[in-house]
Specification:
There is one protein chain. Helix 1 packs across helix 12. The protein is globular and about 70 Å long. It is built from 14 helices and 9 strands. By secondary structure, the chain is of the alpha/beta class. It has a 7-stranded parallel sheet, with helices on both faces. Strands 6-7 form a two-stranded antiparallel ribbon. It has 2 domains: 298 residues, Rossmann fold (3-Layer(aba) Sandwich), CATH 3.40.50.970; 27 residues, no CATH class. It binds thiamine diphosphate (TPP). The site of thiamine diphosphate has 15 residues, from strand 4 and strand 6. Thiamine diphosphate binds next to strand 4 and strand 6.
């Protein structure tokens, strides 16, 4: 019997090695000003993220899912988008949202239990984050299709994790995008874990990117801790999405923190593994590059950190001054005419 060999090879791109040396041939076109802007945003996201964790531990917000380690894949993915493009985020997308002008105090408001915190800033098309795993993948296809039908050049970029690729909506979304040629970029942040499930147990496939092949679209892997590789690959994918050519990008990264503030990753991850990924930190790598290029002095680094801390301080202060939403809202918000059962509960709440 003839042996059938199936090849599911996908490209993998790294521009910046762990020492901060760049492959000039693959470098995306960026000015020094842009590189600094990207660096400052990554530092801001890290400062927001670290503070979120502390605020949760102090009982000042309810819950939080850390971005730490994924700053390059989030900030890099949205950098070339226009405000009118659509970002379809997940619960771990705080970094992408901050880079998309979402006020930090409102993110604290949301994680403090007030849904009003997810209202997108005027003129910026960010969807509310998806708490259900993977559903947003299909929303990304739908929005990208709408853009195409309306002959708009806007695109939808949707974020999801490795775990989401086992959900039906991932497959529905990719299939739909392939068949209808939607204006969509699918960004899978493969951070190696879905809560405690390691990537090897998520799928028997060698890569997540290769899953695109089955749907007739392009799949590509990128070093997700390498900001320049993310900018290059997702930048190209954005350009293609504007022409109705969808792409699945798999960002190879690592979730440095616990899954969420209600989990303890030490129970299922070895310290050595976490330490090894610390060395591949995306901010550290960009700093090495910037130092080599004489774009990072000690004074500049300090001032960026100081400014980020101050901005986060101000966001916390503003968040903690927000008046809580009216209790009635949870009853009156959803239905134009309240169903009987809800009306009964509402009346009871008011009686009490
Ligand atoms: C539909 C649905 N099923 C289960 C959950 C519980 N859940 C929350 S996060 C998570 C893991 C998702 O992992 P992944 O997609 O890799 O994203 P990551 O959290 O690693 O960024 C699960 C199963 C959920 N939120 N929604």
């Amino acid at each position: 019997m003839k042996k059938i060999i199936q090849k599911f090879e996908v490209e993998y791109l790294q521009v910046l090695d762990e020492k901060g040396n760049a492959d000039e041939k693959q470098m995306p076109k960026l000015t020094d000003v842009q590189i600094k802007k990207i660096y400052e945003m990554m530092i801001l996201v890290r400062a927001f993220d670290d503070r979120s964790f502390s605020l949760q531990r102090q009982g000042r917000i309810g819950s939080y899912l850390q971005v730490k380690g994924q700053e390059a894949s989030q900030v890099g993915s949205v950098f070339f988008l226009k405000d009118k493009d659509w970002v379809v985020p997940m619960y771990r997308s705080s970094g992408a949202l901050i880079a998309r002008k979402h006020p930090m105090y409102m993110l604290y408001q949301y994680w403090g239990g007030d849904e009003r915190g997810l209202k997108s800033p005027a003129g910026v098309n960010n969807l509310p984050i998806s708490i259900p795993v993977g559903t947003q993948t299909a929303h990304g296809s739908g929005i990208g299709w709408a853009s195409k039908l309306k002959k708009e050049k806007t695109i939808a970029l949707t974020f999801f994790g490795d775990g989401a690729t086992s959900k039906s909506e991932f497959h529905t979304g990719l299939n739909f995008a392939g068949v209808f040629g939607t204006n969509t970029v699918f960004v899978c942040e493969n951070n190696q874990y879905a809560i405690s499930t390691p990537r090897e147990k998520q799928t028997h496939a060698k890569t997540i990117a290769q899953k695109a092949i089955a749907y007739g679209i392009k799949g590509i892997q990128v070093d997700g801790n390498d900001i320049f590789a993310v900018l290059k690959v997702v930048g190209d994918a954005i350009d293609n999405a504007r022409k109705g050519i969808p792409t699945l990008v798999e960002c190879m990264t690592y979730r440095r923190g616990d899954h969420s503030t209600s989990d303890d990753a030490k129970k299922y991850r070895k310290d050595a593994e976490v330490k090894a990924w610390e060395k591949k930190d995306p901010i550290l790598r960009l700093e090495k590059y910037m130092k080599n290029q004489k774009l990072l002095t000690d004074a500049y680094k300090k001032s960026v950190a100081k400014k980020a801390t101050k901005e986060v301080d101000m966001a916390v202060e503003k968040y903690e001054k927000i008046q809580p939403a009216k209790k009635d809202d949870i009853f009156t918000y959803m239905f134009e005419e309240m169903p009987q059962q809800l009306q009964e509960q509402y009346d009871e709440m008011r009686r009490r």
